Amino acid sequence: MKLPVSFEQFSKDPTKALMFLLLFVVAALYARSENQAKYANEVCEKRLIKCEAELKNMSVMLKSQDSLCSALVTEIKIYRSLGKI
Questions:
Q1: Strand runs (DSSP E) across the chain, as ranges?
Q2: Is the pLDDT of residue 23 over 70?
Q3: What is the 3-state secondary structure (H, E, C) of the chain?
Q4: Rounded CA gap, 41 and 70, in Å?
Q5: Is position 41 within any domain?
Q6: Is 13 or 23 the better-scoring residue by pLDDT?
Q7: Does residue 1 lie in a domain region?
Q8: Phi-psi sector, 83: left (phi>0), alpha (psi -120 to 50), beta
Q9: Across residues 73-79, what is the average pLDDT?
Q10: Looking at residue 5, what DSSP letter applies?
Q11: How far apart (Å, rounded) are the C-alpha atoms in residues 22 and 38?
């Protein structure tokens, strides 16, 4: 692969060489950050799906506990009205 500039040009003007290298570094860092952001989003999506499933299970459990509690309260009222408690 032939670069658009030669080593001779870089040796004549080192600031251009430095700027050229910095351009590659910035492009590489940008690509790396994009990949890290994509990976972080994928991990967050997986965690979100897992949390939503757990929330759904907890909601079902809470509803069943609520109905059980309601039944027990009714039963206690009946026993109190009968004088058993």
A1: none
A2: yes
A3: CCCCCCHHHHHHCHHHHHHHHHHHHHHHHHHHHHHHHHHHHHHHHHHHHHHHHHHHHHHHHHHHHHHHHHHHHHHHHHHHHHCCC
A4: 42
A5: yes
A6: 23
A7: no
A8: left
A9: 92
A10: S
A11: 24
Given a cut of 70, whether residue 3 has pLDDT beyond it is no
Q: Dump pLDDT digits (tens) for 41-74.
A: 999 999 999 999 999 999 999 999 999 999 999 9
Look up residue 1 and give its two tokens.
């692969």
Q: Is residue 3 part of a domain?
A: no
Backbone torsions φ then ψ of 9, nearest 5 degrees: -65, -40
Residue at 6 is within a domain:
no
| Enclosing domain of residue 57 | 12-82
What global pTM score does this model have? 0.55
Inter-residue contact 5 to 20 (CB < 8 Å): yes
Report the number of distinct structural domains present in the chain. 1
